[in-house]
Amino acid sequence: MKFRAIVLGAGFGGLEITSLLSEALGDRIDLKLIDHNDSFYFGFSKLDVMFGHQAAGAVKIPYKRIVKPGVTFCKENIISIDPSGKKVTTEKTTYEADVLVVALGADYDLKATPGLAESNEYYSFSGAEKLRDILPQFTKGNAIVGVCGAPFKCPPAPSEGALMLHDYLVNRGIRNECSISLVIPFGLPIPPSPDSSKALLKAFEERDIRFIPQRKVSAVDNSRKTVTLDDGTELPCDLFLGIPKHVAPDVVLQSGLAENGWIPVDRKNLQTKFAGVYAVGDVTSVGTPKAGVFAEGAAKIAAASIIAAFHGKENNDPYTGAGSCYIEFGKGTVARVDVDFFSGPKPFGIHQEASEALVADKKLFGSSRVARWFGE
Ligand SMILES: Cc1cc2nc3c(=O)[nH]c(=O)nc-3n(C[C@H](O)[C@H](O)[C@H](O)COP(=O)(O)OP(=O)(O)OC[C@H]3O[C@@H](n4cnc5c(N)ncnc54)[C@H](O)[C@@H]3O)c2cc1C
After folding, report:
1. How far is the CA of 10 from the centre of ligand 1 (A)?
2. pTM confidence score
């Protein structure tokens, strides 16, 4: 009988581990990759869709393109997970496996912030598409990019949203009629990298973007056109670009895998408290930010552990929590921060100045993943 694996979720983490297991074990594995969507898109493509730089259809990569030894993609909705029996139930059937890899990402709890469901957010694909249609109607007033809860995906993305909004309004010739504020719950835009934070703060100052640190948005009042911060401050707001509170998917919360909202894992091998059940990416509380590069890094270590165990060995490479994040700085430039969370005594990041060269670097980052995961 073949070695049976189920990968739950075909996002950054799920696609990476699927590729690595298929590459290493080929036809000796029977791997079911399950996702309720029919296509993958990078998180950063939501910014492109929102500001009309790319059409929604152009950034989606259909899962039917995956042709890999040992892999079957199942477009199904996972409705329950039994980690002790290593069983996964979808609306169609129940699968059993030798190994489960939970890579179901993070969902958004819009209801946690009163008024947000009737306002706007750009963290979901549909939210970004809705904003693409709303932005052209905004001609003057106060715009706020605001974080409603932590942890949230891709810590630079709120700063990117504010900088890209600035460019968008400049290009429409209405920047002087509008104010932009950025509300985030940290003291600095990117806490592990003082240099990236310094560069972002300088960019905000040059562009007259008001930076409001250490605060979250706790309510949005659409009729009074205000947002309320968690210290009770009210700000006038004609256009809200929200970052919703994140939560683990319901099916994970009901499975017994999560503690305090997320799945704890052993950093050595990304295994959960259930033997043979691994978890990678945003759904975990591993200690890195919720970002694709970290989901990918964790998937590499989980894959190495599963492959080693298949051969009766142990993987001794630790998970360093290292990865490079690109930061859209606007004006056709991109910066990069190379962060390492676990190798040193505390997390540290090395900043690479925004440049046009890094735009090409980011493009290659995306296209190389598509090539590896989708075989092109
Ligand atoms: C605006 C924005 C910009 C970003 N920019 C970057 C960036 O520049 N660099 C970066 O590294 N990261 C970036 N990110 C973050 C990145 O997108 C996520 O951190 C990353 O996708 C997490 O990978 P994951 O595998 O943990 O989860 P995901 O990629 O979210 O994958 C989870 C998968 O599980 C599926 N799923 C969930 N529930 C079910 C269910 N019940 N049944 C079946 N399938 C299910 C989902 O459909 C999804 O495909 C950005 C995010 C946003 C929102």
Report:
1. 9
2. 0.98
Which fold does the domain 110-246 belong to in CATH?
FAD/NAD(P)-binding domain (3.50.50)
- Condensed to tens digits (0 to 9), the pLDDT of residues 74-119 reads 999 999 999 999 999 999 999 999 999 999 999 999 999 999 999 9
Which atom of ligand 1 is the closest one to the Cα of 12?
Answer: 25
Tens digit of pLDDT for each residue in 311-346?
999 999 889 999 999 999 999 999 999 999 998 899
Reported residue count of the chain is: 376
Q: 161 is written with which tokens? A: 């949203």
Taking the CA of residue 292 as reference, the ligand 1 atom at the shortest distance is: 11
Domain spans of the chain, in order of start: 3-106+248-319, 110-246
Let me know the angle formed at the C-alpha of 147 by 361 and 107, rounded to the nearest 5 degrees: 80
> Is the beta carbon of 34 within 6 A of some atom in ligand 1?
yes
Judge: domain 3-106+248-319, CATH 3.40.309.10: no
Distance CA 287, CA 263 (A): 11
CA dist., res. 16 & res. 30, Å (int):
16
Instruction: Please answer whether residues 262 and 284 qualify as being in contact, where contact means their C-beta atoms are separated by less than 8 angstroms.
Output: yes
